[in-house]
Design a protein that fits this description.
rod-shaped, alpha+beta, about 40% helix, about 270 residues, single chain, disordered N terminus
Length: about 270
């Protein structure tokens, strides 16, 4: 991955389960800020990657502020501080990263957020980060991108976490590209290569079959009009020029249909 790419990502997180998650004594709430699950983009962020980003010196831990809805400034000039994340409480449990948020209840904004979160009317936070290192893996024939190292920007209180929100912010920054699109293109290319490999195998099998029974076929004096082959589809697939899996599939079906016709004729003549 290009380390200079400004690819801002967001993942959602929620209040931890159990009554002990919310402390009335110090106005803090424990959140599951990250969990090792494969998201809808077939990406998984390792718990160690998140914990390391939280604890690294001179980065997030130097200013662990919690913002309201990713806003760095508010229209009325009010400090955009809901509270601060207690980095010392960050830990991994059951492949999830937990950390406490201490609400700034001595401010109007912090108190307002504490009221709705402590009653669980709002439960979500959104984590803004950039991927630094990762690797691609295949599990059960599904391509997964495993994120091993991130740069953590901030964690905000939000009503509804959304990746679209991250992309709109990203476009405003400029000089960005979406790594997800690159991985999708790579996955499509890999799928096409695998499909091509399967097709070549079937074509070779068809050739061997015909070679084995060529004498029989010659004796049949076949009328070309008795056979049908979708030549454009077959030629595109057999030559590897099909632009997508659907075209490759049509070519494969054309070749197999021709094989079935030949088998039917041989069976009838036999």
């Amino acid at each position: 991955m290009d380390m200079k790419t400004k690819e801002l990502k967001h993942i959602s997180a929620f209040i931890a389960e159990g009554k002990e998650a919310i402390s009335e004594e110090d106005y803090s709430i424990e959140f599951v800020v990250s969990k090792e699950v494969v998201d809808r983009d077939n990406e998984i962020v390792l718990a160690e990657a998140v914990l390391d980003a939280i604890q690294r010196k001179n980065e997030f831990s130097a200013n662990p502020i919690c913002l309201p809805c990713h806003q760095h400034r508010l229209p009325d000039g009010t400090p955009p501080c809901v509270g601060s994340w207690d980095v010392s409480t960050a830990r991994i449990r059951d492949r999830a990263v937990l950390m406490r948020l201490r609400f700034a209840v001595d401010t109007r904004l912090g108190e307002a957020y504490w009221r709705v979160y402590s009653k669980r009317h709002m439960r979500a936070v959104s984590i803004g980060f950039r991927v630094l290192e990762g690797r691609d893996e295949v599990h059960d024939r599904v391509h997964i991108h495993v994120v091993e190292r991130i740069e953590l920007y901030e964690i905000s209180c939000v009503g509804v976490p959304s990746n679209r929100e991250a992309l709109s912010t990203l476009k405003a920054i400029g000089n960005w590209q979406e790594d997800r699109e690159r991985r999708e293109l790579e996955k499509t290319s890999t799928d096409l290569k695998e499909l091509e490999r399967v097709l070549v195998g079937k074509i070779d099998a068809l050739r061997e079959y015909l070679d084995d029974r060529i004498e029989e076929l010659l004796q049949l004096s076949l009328n070309p009009n008795d056979l049908y082959l979708d030549e454009p589809a077959a030629e595109a697939a057999f030559s590897g020029r099909a632009a997508d899996p659907a075209a490759q599939q049509r070519g494969q079906e054309a070749g197999l249909d021709l094989l079935k016709q030949l088998e039917k004729i041989l069976t009838k003549k036999g």
